[in-house]
Each structure stands twice: as C-alpha cells, then as structure tokens.
TrEMBL record, chains A, B:
Pathway: Amino-acid biosynthesis; L-proline biosynthesis; L-glutamate 5-semialdehyde from L-glutamate: step 2/2. It catalyses: L-glutamate 5-semialdehyde + phosphate + NADP(+) = L-glutamyl 5-phosphate + NADPH + H(+). The gene is proA. GO terms for molecular function: glutamate-5-semialdehyde dehydrogenase activity. Belongs to the gamma-glutamyl phosphate reductase family. It comes from the Bacteria. PROSITE patterns: PROA (PS01223). Residues 12-289, 310-374 form the Aldehyde dehydrogenase domain. It is an enzyme of class 1 (oxidoreductase). It is found in: Cytoplasm. Catalyzes the NADPH-dependent reduction of L-glutamate 5-phosphate into L-glutamate 5-semialdehyde and phosphate. The product spontaneously undergoes cyclization to form 1-pyrroline-5-carboxylate. This is Gamma-glutamyl phosphate reductase. It comes from Marinobacterium weihaiense. Keywords: Amino-acid biosynthesis, Cytoplasm, NADP, Oxidoreductase, Proline biosynthesis. It holds the Pfam family Aldedh.
Amino acid sequence: MNVETYMTELGQRARTASRLIARADTARKNKALAAMADAIDASREALAAANAQDMQNGRDKGLDAAMLDRLELTPGRIDGMIEGLRQVAALPDPIGGIRDMNYRPSGIQIGKMRVPLGVIGIIYESRPNVTCEAASLCLKSGNATILRGGSEAIHSNQAIAACIREGLEAAGLPQEAVQVVETTDREAVGRLIAMPEYVDVIVPRGGKGLIERISTDARVPVIKHLDGICHVYIDAEADKSKALNIAINAKTHRYGTCNTMETLLVDQAVAADILPELADHYAQLGVELRGCEQTLALLPNINAATADDWDTEYLAPILAVKVVADMATAIEHINRHGSHHTDAIITENYTKARAFLREVDSSSVMVNASTRFADGFEYGLGAEIGISTDKIHARGPVGLEGLTSEKYVVLGDGQVRA
Amino acid sequence: MNVETYMTELGQRARTASRLIARADTARKNKALAAMADAIDASREALAAANAQDMQNGRDKGLDAAMLDRLELTPGRIDGMIEGLRQVAALPDPIGGIRDMNYRPSGIQIGKMRVPLGVIGIIYESRPNVTCEAASLCLKSGNATILRGGSEAIHSNQAIAACIREGLEAAGLPQEAVQVVETTDREAVGRLIAMPEYVDVIVPRGGKGLIERISTDARVPVIKHLDGICHVYIDAEADKSKALNIAINAKTHRYGTCNTMETLLVDQAVAADILPELADHYAQLGVELRGCEQTLALLPNINAATADDWDTEYLAPILAVKVVADMATAIEHINRHGSHHTDAIITENYTKARAFLREVDSSSVMVNASTRFADGFEYGLGAEIGISTDKIHARGPVGLEGLTSEKYVVLGDGQVRA
C-alpha cells in the first residue's frame, strides 16, 4: 500500500473514533488511562526489548550521545510514563463544562460548552515517552490522536502503542482513538499535515527546524513552539537581592530549557552596583558573558557581544548582557529581539511593574519571579503538551484546555427571532 | 512602485502602529471612534460623491442588481456607520482585563491578561460600510488593521478611510493603525495573506469561493466562515406549537442568512401529525419543499430530494425535509451533512436535550430556539466581525474577544525555581 493511501485510512479511522471519544464520559476515559498504566507495567520486558533494538540501531547509525540518551527507555522512565498516566487520570475532565449561562432580552439563555478539537496530529522526535504523554492528554481532552514519532524510536513507539490499545480496549473505547504511524517514510508527515478533512490541528514537538518546516507546509492549524529568547530586566528600583537571585536562577537553573534567560538587561542607574557582583557569581558557575559597550566598561574581562547575540537562543552557559537607559528602552529591546516567550522585570516600583506587564508582548510576563517558572506544571495546568509561541488559539504553556474548543449552547422555551 | 513593495511597506507601518494601539487606553480609543463618527457625519457629501462614482463604474461594468444594492451608500447606511461607531465606543474595552489570578504553592501568583492579536487583515467584497465596521472593532480591541475591500468599492472605501484617519489623528493615535489598500491589483491580496512577519490573522468576509481560496493560500491563520447548512430536528417529544413556530421562523425569517435552516429533520413518530400542517404554512409562504421517501409518502405533492440536497446551503425559499428513525439518526445526519454552524432540537425531553447539546458538533447547538438567534448581537457580544466555522481560536459569532489573545502574567516577591 502506498503512504498516501495508508495515511488517508489512518485519518478516516481517527475521524470516526473522534466522535466516540468526544462523547465518552469521564469514568470511561479514566478507566482507559488506568488500564494503559497497568498494561505498561505488565509489559516492561517487551518495552525494554523493543527499546534495546532501537538503541542498537541508533548506535549502528552513529547517533550522538545526547540523542541516544533521549531515546533510552530506562526503568525510571517507564515508571515515569505509568505515573504520568495516573496523574492525567486524576486531572479534572475539561469536556462538557459549561460557563457563563446568561439570559438575553429575547428570553434565550446562552453559554459556552467546552468540547474536543477532534483529531490531533502529534509529530515528535526521539523521546519515546512522548508517545504515552501525548496520547494520554489527547484522550483525556476527548480527542483522537495520530502520533508520528522519530524513525529511530519506531520499535519503542510501537511497543508503547500496543499498551495504549490494550488500555482503550479494556475501557470499551475504540483502539483507533490513538494511532501510531507505522511507517518511517517521511512522506507520512507531509500527508498528515495536509489532511484538514481528517486532522484538526498539528502539534509538532522538536527542534526549531522541524517546527518551521511543518508550519510552512501544513494545511491545518499548527500549535507551535519556536524559540525561547527570554529576558530579565533589572530596573533602577530593583531590590538588589531579588535581582541577584533571579538573574542567577533564570540563567543557571537549567541551560537547555526554553524558559532560560538568554539576555540580561540592566538599568544604567544600577549597573555599576549590580553587574560586577553578578559577574562574579556567573564566573563561579562557568557562565560566559557577552556584553554591550557599557557592560564592557564595567566588566573589562568579558567578551564583546555582536549584533547576533541579541537574537540568539544559546541553550548553553552563555549570557548576553546589555545596559539600558530606562524601562522603555528595555521593553523596546524585548519586543524587538525576544521571541515573545517569557520576560521578567525586577522592580519595587508599582507603576513600572504595571506598565511592563501591559506593554511586553510575550506569552508570559513576570514581575520579580524567575523566567524558569513558565511551565504547565508550575502554572497549575497539571500537564503540558508544549509551550505555544503563537497568539492564535493557545498561548504559553498548553495543558488540556489548549486541546479543546468551545461551542455556544442556547436553551429556549420556543423562542423565535422577531 | 510594485505591489509587493507597497504591501510590505503597509505591513511594516501596521506592525509599528500596532504597538502604539496595543497600549492606547480606553478613553483614547473611544475618542478616536467618536471623532470618526463626527468625520463621517461631516463628510456626507464627499462620501455620496465617491459612492456615486463607484455606482456609475459598477453599472458600466454591468454589475447585477444585488451587487449594486450592496455597493450603495444610502443616507440610511451612512447613519448606520455613525451609529455603529458610537455603539463600539460604548462597548467595554476587553484589553488589559486580568482573570483568574491565583497563588501557586511556589508563592507566585498567576493569571491571564487579555491582549490584542497585533495586526489583522480584513478582505471583503462590495459593501463599503464593512470598512467602517471592521476598522472600529479592530481599533477597540487594540489591533492595527489592513483593509482590502472590493475593487468596485474603491472610491467609497478611500473616502471612508479618510474619515477614519481624521478620527485617529484627532485622538492622537497613529493614522497607520487603520490602512485601506489603495491598489485594486489582485496581487495585493496574495501578498497580504503571506506576510506572517507583519500580519497576525486574516478575516475574510464574502462568498465561500473567496474564503476557500484565501484559506488555501494563506500563510497566516484565517478566521473563516464557510457555509451555514443548519438543521432543526423535531423530536418525538416536541411541543407541537413550539415545533411549528421554530420550523417556520428558522426557514422564513430571512432566506439569505447563514443561520437559516436548510434541512428539517422530523422524528417518524410525529411526522404524520406535524408535516402536513407545516407544509401548508410553507406553501402559503412560498417555500419549496424537497422530501425524502417517507416525507413524500405524507406530502405527495412536493419534489423528491436528491443526495445533493442534504449538503446544500440554498440561501433561498427551499427546504430539504427528512423523516428520521430517532434522535441518534438525526445527530448522525447533522454531524455528517451539516456545516457545524447552528443546529437545534425541539423536545420536551430532558435527557434527549442534554445528549443533543453534548453530541452535536456545531458552533451553536440549541434547544427549543430558532437557529436565527446565532448572531453576535443576539448573543450579547455587542458586535460581530463574522461567524467562525473553525474550531481553533474563535468559534461561532466573533465579537471583540475573538480579535484578542491572552498572555500569562506572573507576580512574585523574588521567587526562584527550586
């Protein structure tokens, strides 16, 4: 069978299954999630064997150490999948919830009911545990899913898919509610993102290159996460100890995450007081600083920043540092050079805090808190399918609600339009 | 200058203006709207002269009577534009509103702030009053706009644009916040929908053909309204008088609107009691019925429906009628043949009402009310830029809120991630 026919059939089955999943009640969805957890627990050997095959192929193909690490399904990661499924089962069911039922002068009563999106296509790279995570979030939010993992994880993903199907069947739900693409042909992705009749939205998870390619070619909406060029701005009226703590945490808590600070902006009024002390801390932690001219005047031993540094997501122990004239200049820099992800001001000034919150055009805007908090779990969403850098539909950390829509419900007693 | 350069410059100016409009306070936006109303009131002669030129060109080009009617700016329609601007000024400002500020265990406090989308491109056909309507809604919701009207209305649109610029200037807002494309070159549309760096969302208003073309070619999100194939299902436990009133109102209140019923579904248990009486009413009102086989058995004088009838938006005094075995069959028919726009059940049965609301996958689902209520004004949105048949971002009638997004705001006291 050719790939196009295969994907079309997958799409048709997903569309049919989506109608059944949409009306499944909370108890049934939770039963399926619990049964998936049990199936994974009972299949540890099969999962390990499948993963060993992927790891061997990966080593033969010369995958680098970081990729092999992401590919590995250790016993701890299998525990993590099981725990994750149980946590998703424990989350409140968003589907069917009705808000804002109000009467109108015509006598009709109108409100909004939360509903699934329909069919969600997920495209991801090496980590096989994403298969389980994404399937569970889509199921809980009443959606059918088509999952396309990396070719290097194909055996692991198929083994996880078997456990997922077992769980769906145990709860009396259609197995086609979660389908894992069985071919590694790249054409499968091209077809998946171009079937609006069967797929309602695509969530790509992976590097910026993958996501840009998918966004450009997709014929369906894409909930996308591009880069995280996050800023901390230390205002003239910052509390010094908060500023030091947050600047260090936002850069050094983890280097490879999208909510890590990549550029530090410091108000010129406090630069001389704060930067040398901060530079000592960074030096001890092995962070390379790249400064603007005014920064270099205070820290003569660091490297000079080039124009590119202001637009770079390092994902590494490197930090660009710029001294700015005032908050307006800081906001202008952030809105121009940032990636509209997460940006923070450190200040004790009420009016500046309020203006910064309003004027910075990012999915998370913070006052006196580390950018590292931008995360679905820290925000209380209970789960996270990703962080959206879009403005349309879902913005910032995306939990179950981002995988849903709303419809209007209208209750009447026979009203007609006059 | 070539069209691509012209549109790029329009986009750059809109992007710059959008940052100023986003932070404009409510009083300033309302002042601009009031000044636009005054400018239109003071420019009645210029508007009439520009419109007369478009009307003459239209007649010379042989536009049909319906198009010429839509193109005409009568004194009443000019009054309507002025009144519309004042109504939009009176609506609550959605921008900057914060909801759900809650504390998290880490001590940070998190909520969501409503923000503009940025730059909105509107593409529409002959009605020049849309220029005013769309500009006012985008301005009130803090967005910059690029408007591309039909070439047949170019003089009217430019005359309205002059009044809009006058209003913006009077309030101290940038004139580039609302730009009306000055070329009638079709390439301008192609460029407008393919500049994600300058345009955040496209709202096309017009026929299905236009909207499908734009959706296919767009490289930015599109809030689209395709067709309205709306159903009324008369359940076995319907109140007969409500059923008759709603079935007549939903079809005959207006024929050309998207929320008009196009297919009537009747439960077989009540078809013999209801259909003949209803058919008499429709006959008196000049509505042509096209029935399924069971309908024909009860109404032998009407035409037979063909397979195409179940998928047709007539926008005319024609109604497809089908007798169904039960509610499940009705829901199946609606989800398969409808356009997910607006569908209603007439029933006194609580459990069936509840199931219909949950299971019908449409932007508006109604119990015992006419589909004609699906409208931004009837729903209390205060205004309507269109009705979305999408599930992503905005669904159903789209008012000011549909032109906005939300960002997370995080307030802390120096918290760092542990």
